[in-house]
Amino acid sequence: MATTFRGVIEFFNQLGMYDVILPFLLVFSIVFAILEKTRVLGFEDAEKKITKKNLNSMVAFVIAFLVIGSTKLVAIVNETMANIVLLLLLAVSFLMLVGVFLGTEETKFSWKDPWMIFFSFFMFIAIAAIFLHAIKTDSGQSWLDAIFNYVSSNWSGNMMGVIILAIIVVGFMWFVTKSPKKEEKK
């Protein structure tokens, strides 16, 4: 059953809102914010307080137009952003569950907290998987599927040895380069 609001959504779709306007605004905003923050293109004044907004906006404008000019990039942006919103909802749901179990106590995460490390690692892996799933090969297969197919078809003793060796090397590098904990004086 079609409703008035569904008709509005379909009208926006026909107008190009989801394929042109929203990806353009997203890319323009992100690139402009990065250029303003990094101040890569210079300053207007000698005190280095006012950035070159006109130059930053022009570069962001051109990059956003180049992105929407490629239908593959727009499809990747649309699929990735939709999946990231789902991941964001998962994160908020997780934090709500943590809040339920903590009761009225305020939650403050720090990098010393194992939950924060696990949660950050999980989110990084999930975002990487979302991007790999959004990018398709010429045959229409996602990069994530291609990686899984490659690993499953080439899984052998040599592959397992390489993975174990890589884990040992990374673990050893972390152990050697970690800074020692400072002892508190009483």
Largest sheet features = none
Number of helices: 7
Structural class: mainly alpha
Give the SSE string.
Answer: HHHHHHH
Mean pLDDT, to the nearest integer, reads: 82
**Helical content class:** over 70%
Measured distance between first and last alpha carbons: 73 Å
**Rounded to an integer, what's the Rg over CA atoms?**
23 Å
Question: How many individual β-strands?
Answer: 0
Strand percent estimate? under 5%
Poorly predicted regions are none
Q: What does the overall shape look like?
A: extended
Q: Work out the count of structural domains.
A: 2
Question: Topology of this structure?
Answer:
Elements: H1 4-15, H2 17-38, H3 53-68, H4 71-102, H5 114-134, H6 143-153, H7 157-177
Helix pairs in contact: 2-3, 2-4, 4-5
Task: Summarize this structure briefly.
With 186 residues, the chain is mostly helical.
How is this structure best described in words?
The chain has 186 residues and is mainly alpha-helical. The protein contains 7 helices and no strands. 5% of the residues are buried.
List keywords for this structure.
186 residues, 2 domains
